[in-house]
Amino acid sequence: MKYTAVGIAGMVGASLRYAIGLSFQHVWFYDFPIATFLTNMLGSFILGWLTLSLPRLKFLHPVMIPAIGTGLIGSFTTFSTFSVETVELMIVGKWGVALLYLLFSVWGGLLFSWLGYRFGSRQRRMSV
After folding, report:
1. Would you tell me the crossing angle of helices 34-53 and 95-127 to the nearest 10 degrees?
2. Which residues in the chain come in under a pLDDT of 70?
3. CA–CA separation, 9 vs 81, rounded Å?
4. Are the C-beta atoms of residues 120 and 49 closer than 8 Å to each other?
5. From CA 63, how far away is CA 87, in angstroms rounded?
6. Over the stretch 69-101, which tens digit does the pLDDT of each residue have?
7. Is the pTM of this model over 0.85?
8. Which one, 23, 47, 63, 97, has least CB within 10 Å?
């Protein structure tokens, strides 16, 4: 049952990421891959927050914890697309954009994960 739940949640997360990517195609015309960047930052924050929040929810079936964390958020964020987009920017000679994307993604992901974790920590202290 756990694998099925992770798989179904993964389909939802991947579909959400795909929808965000499509929506930005019509409004973002710059070289910086904003859809993947924003998706990864949001996912990093949410996963940091949920890491502390989900286990505390007594009404949530234990199978749902990996389904939401690994399935939904894991498929919503994408390291592979980030990597390919960075390489594609380098191949076409957009080294500055590639470097910014790399730096912003790594440091931004760490920052947003930390912020999500802090948000979850604050909620835990308030509920105790």
Report:
1. 20
2. 124, 126-128
3. 19
4. yes
5. 37
6. 999 999 999 999 999 999 999 999 999 999 999
7. yes
8. 23
